[in-house]
Amino acid sequence: MTAPTFTPRVFSGIKPSGGLTLGNYLGAIKRWVDMQSEMESIYCVVDLHAITVWQDPAELKNGTREIAAGMLASGIDPAKSILFNQSQVPEHAQLAWIFNCVARLGWMNRMTQFKDKAGSNAEKASLGLYAYPSLMAADILLYHATHVPVGEDQKQHVELTRDIASKFNHDFKRDFFPITEPVIDGPATRVMNLRDGSKKMSKSGESDMERINMLDDADTIAKKFKKAKTDPAPLPETVDGLKDRAEARNLVEIYAALSDTTPEAVIADYPGAGWGTFKPALADLAVSKLAPISDEMKRLLNDPAEIDRTLAAGAQKARAIAAPVLDETYDIVGLLRG
Ligand code: TYM
Which of 93, 98, 264, 302 makes the best surface tag, with the fewest CB within 10 Å? Predict the structure, then answer.
């Protein structure tokens, strides 16, 4: 087989299950904004993924709009990128079925995120939660995406996507799907929980104090950083001193990501600083970067119909790419079409 060259194309997605967090922004959206100027980019609010766990129907619609508003307010430009919600492009679910027949049970059983989410009660988890990574592979490969910018927690899913693409190409003796690259870089690929540096910051964590929400006001942001757990030692003189200090490292990485610099540069600016100095500086920085985004989100959310129109227009553009790929997949697999 001669390997075809695939046009560079970015795909990434975010679940509308709960509000947007600083982890989503720094680990994903902020970098998507940069990438949209470098490559053709497709960004998706993955509502079909959200319903793998129970979602209140009215909240799901509003959650979808909130994520879209967050992406737009952060700088995703619908004139440059395709922005839509997954369920408006039925080809995602159709390709996912094909991939359910390609992916092996053994592969799915290794997915750590399923184990984390299903917890000790896996018998009660939905079949959708188990098959989730296969739908994610469909999201990516439906557009022949070559680059998938994500946070560290999605790495295993992108690797599974590569396995599914390879097996499909091998089984059908065609180099049809690209072997996608995860793009996991920058200082904040894993933003941690503010109350427990061993867990990632997530939308669904128990306490609101453990995360920064993109819609938090300035006082709340300041309070959360002030109360963020740390060890008693001041900041070190060099980044090596952050080793084994998960909470301290997390706050330095957040600072670095918000100010578009590196942890080394942050430590160089605050060598040996105490938390009484660093935490307020971090809070001020976060408010200065996040307030314009949350103000714009609130403005956009005042006109939900406009967000709905933007997503519907994006879905049309997405379908124009997705439908021919699905058609060809059906042909390759041997599914008869009129
Ligand atoms: P989701 O909705 O959990 O998160 C969306 C994006 O935010 C990143 N992220 C983080 N990055 C750094 N630190 C954190 N604490 C943090 N929390 C979240 C995630 O890594 C992700 O990039 N399965 C995906 C959604 C998805 C997808 C896709 C992604 C569905 N199909 C296809 C890429 C391509 C998810 O649940 O992301």
Answer: 302
